[in-house]
Amino acid sequence: MPAPAIQLIDVSYRYPRTKRYVISRLNLTVQKGELMAVMGENGAGKSTLCQLMNGIIPHSLGGKLKGKVLIDGIDTQESTIAELATHVGIVLDDPETQLFTTTVLSEVAFGPENLGVPAQEIRERIAWALDIVGLTGFEDRSPTALSGGQKQRLAIAAALAMKPSILVLDEATSQLDPLGVVEVLRVVRELNVKYGMSILMATDHGEEVAKIADRALVLHQGQLVTCGSPREIFSDTGLFKKFMIRAPQVSQLGARLAEAGKSLPVFPISLEEACGGISQSIKNGIDHLEEAAETSPAPTSSISQKTPVISVENLNFIYQPQKVHAVRGVSFSIQEGECVALIGQNGSGKTTILKNMLGLLIPSSGKVLVAGMDTHNIAVAEMAQHVGFVLQNPDQQLFAETVEQEIAFGPHNLGLSKDAIQERVEEAVEMVGLESVRKEFPPALSKGDRAKVVIASALALRPEILVLDEPTTGQDYKGCHQIMQIARTFHQSGRTVVFVTHHMALVAEYAQRAIVLCNGQILLDDRTERVFAQPELVRQAHVIPPQITELGQALPASLGLPRTCLTVAQMANAVLARMTVAG
Amino acid sequence: MSSMITFIPGMTLFHRLDPRSKIVFMVLISTAIFAVQNLYVTIAILAVMVALWFVAGLPAKVVLGFLRALLPIFIFLVIVQAIFYPGEHILVQPLIPDFVPWIGGMGRITLEGIGFSIILMLRLLSMIILLPLVSMTTPVHIFALGLVKLGLPYHLAYTTTSALNLVPILQNETNVIIDAQRLRAMKTFEKGKALDKARAYPALVTPLVIGAMRHAQSMAVAMDSRAFGANKKRTYIEDIEFKPLDWIFCICTLVFTIAVIAASILL
Fold first, then answer.
1. Mean pLDDT throughout A482-496?
2. Helix A104-114 to helix A119-133 angle, to the nearest 10 degrees?
């Protein structure tokens, strides 16, 4: 019998100069040709597990490794990174740091060149690898000029060129827009099914796992919680609650129905199963069904009567000197108290619009008015008192010795008195829930807490508007919702929230209105449920509605369920209501 | 800023040369620039450099950008040289009388001092033009290959050249951080006094350093994963070839270097 692709025997590991074992007593076997998903919260040990596979741990990073890691039967501790590279290819989360050469061609060539493969064979391998990931013809492009999905596919090609039999993906889709995720997963699945590659995929995304994984394991604080088929994992609602595993939305729905005592015939993990199950359960009980009234709420009149706090008038922005026309004649206005999401693919102009709103960029033509002031004439520091801005990467601004000092930085810049600063710090700490870490060094906090510090820093300036630029990138399920809850609390106090994100489930749950951007222009600007009711149109902007919305659209109209459902709770209530009628 | 040293594609003479020719060119011309002390010969070298700049089809904006950034240093150097360079033709009398021990005679400005500082400035200018002539016409990995073929170990060649890649990344990062802090009502980077700017430094440098360390760490993982530094004989898909054109270019460079040094000695 051939050796399994991956075998871990009682493996524990701690990083150098630390005491805590980030992986502890882990046993695991991945058979050849199997696709295994690794799930768990941030800090559960997913990345560490991935880096154990190709010998980066312990050969490159050091630390203390106990137990045995066997790759194709080879003990990684007795092998070298170079030899392991021909068995295991790895793709990391951040496209920026794993692509480091100047052309697509040299990027793919880098690995085999290091291995001393003859030039002619490398050229053949490049052609083969680029063909698999669908990047043939891109050889002379610069990696920096590719889209997020293309970059990750290039990283896969670069790994494939070393002819590994195992591919490891460490959150490889976490920074991509929805269509980018689909592109990458299609390649991964093809490698698994068509080429029989064994795949270990760390991800936080239940819908991906349900679609392509053979098995999934759940890690918590470096320990194996459970390992089983996606259906076993996702139907265990205890796991979801305890370890914040992001189950597919249809599974969350299934769990809610089960809790209400109305289990579907098969616990759903895919859209098709949920669709079939719900149709069957409802139809079974009813012979005739009157068409239910459309449940989507009428637009509230209160919004249009308020004054706009942000008004963008025919905004054009051209980046010099490259003359990139990033925003083309965009106009919209946001009323006080709205919560608006800006969505669309990378490079569609979302961040450029935000920067124009903040006065960091000056419009090439057109006007941006924020809180009644023309951003052209107002200093950024002044603007900061009206608009709180939360950057995508918290590490780009944290510097103080303690969380309190970090939050005090903004109020201090305003020249406030000591008491006033203290009052604002207290208020902000409480608002985001950082009481327990107030004296800690911000860069050393967990990713979720670092994001909270940045939000608190913005809130300490007491802005009327909160702007968040991809605040949830790289955050786990818990982190995402904690961040969005802070934004919701801010919004519920009557103030305005504008955010940019690729997480459509968050848009559906938190935004009342979505502005869809495509190539620097507005494709659609409407209430969120109406935006997601047009899946064909928004797909142009690389937007795919959340699974629960897709479910609403996929279900037969005769069931009388809402066509545009935004949240799992909404759908669960509607289904339960119909079941009661039917039953 | 980011475009100052990064490769610009093209088909000019400089783009077609073997990286080894360009390394020879860089070494010889910088030797010449350092060796030559004569004003006229210095001007001649600068003129040739400017001409080559146009031959390589590079944008004039880049040099102007460099000049703007370096102007304060130039002015400082010229003043220092003018004050400290010994000379006989005194234009401005010393600020401190000669009889004061140690610092006596300082503050005197001489004709020789001014002449020397002008030459120094012209030499610096030539150097500033020389570097991008090579870096902007050679892809980084080809330049690294040139170094390897000249006998440098691969990992050293790669590290040297990738440091060039790091500059635009750090510049970009700096801009993002400054924007982030401005949005926290920080005004210092726009219009602060020097002392305030110094106090504001941690707000810029701490995230920059931590960010650079994180970046370096994850990049090291990515590179190691692709067998960087494996103990095998590395191959290269792209080969470089020392063509007749390179011989002609190197010989011309050598002749030019000898000529200007000789001229500087004889004149």
1. 94
2. 130
Residues A330 and A520: beta-carbon distance below 8 Å: yes
* Yes or no, beta carbons of B226 and A56 under 8 Å apart: no
Q: What CA–CA distance (Å, rounded) separates A449 from A435?
A: 11
Helix (H, G, I), strand (E, B) or coil at A538: helix
- The tokens describing A316, both together, are 């054009």
Residue-level pLDDT at B154:
86
Tell me the C-alpha distance between A249 and A274, whole Å.
Answer: 10
E-strand stretches of A336-475: 339-343, 365-370, 373-374, 387-390, 465-469
ipTM passes above 0.85: no
Length of chain A: 583
Asked if the Cβ–Cβ distance from A379 to B190 is below 8 Å, we say yes
CB A384 within 8 A of CB B183: yes
Q: What angle do CA A345, A347, A352 make, to 5 degrees?
A: 115
Distance separating alpha carbons of residues A526 and A513, to the nearest angstrom? 6
Q: Would you call A233 helix, strand, or coil by DSSP? A: helix
Number of domains in chain B: 1
Task: State how far the alpha carbon of A470 is from the alpha carbons of A175, A352, A483, B13, in Å.
Answer: 10, 13, 11, 46
What pLDDT is recorded for position A492? 94
Q: What is the mean pLDDT of residues A313-318?
A: 94
Characterise A368 by phi-psi region: left (phi > 0), alpha (psi -120 to 50), beta (else): beta
DSSP string, B82-130: HHHS--SSEEE--SS-TTSTTTTTTT-EEHHHHHHHHHHHHHHHHHHHH
**Residues across chain B:** 267
- Asked if A6-243 and A307-544 have one fold, the answer is yes
Q: What kind of fold does domain A6-243 have according to CATH?
A: Rossmann fold (3.40.50)
Question: Which residues of chain A have a CB within 8 Å of the CB of B234?
Answer: 113-114, 116
For the sheet with A6-14, list strands across it: A23-30, A6-14, A64-71, A74-75
Contacts of A266 by beta carbon, 8 Å cutoff, 6+ apart: A273, A276, A277
Query: Looking at beta carbons, which residues of chain A come within 8 Å of B218?
Result: 92, 94, 97-98
Calculate the alpha carbon distances from A41 to A38, A573, B25 in Å.
10, 28, 56
In the beta sheet, which residues pair with residue A218?
Answer: A39, A226
Domain ranges of chain A: 6-243, 253-296+548-582, 307-544
Dihedral sign, Cα of residue A367, residue A369, residue A372, residue A378: negative
- Is the pLDDT confidence value at B19 over 50? yes
Domain A307-544 of CATH type 3.40.50.300: yes
**pLDDT of A379 over the 50 cut:** yes
Domain extent at residue B127: 2-266
Q: Is B255 on the interface with A (CB under 8 A)?
A: no
Residue in B3, B187, B211 nearest the CB of A396: B211
pTM for this model (two decimals): 0.85
Which of B185, B210, B232 lies closest to A381 in CB terms?
A: B185
pLDDT in tens, B79-120: 777 777 777 777 777 667 767 666 666 667 777 778 888 888
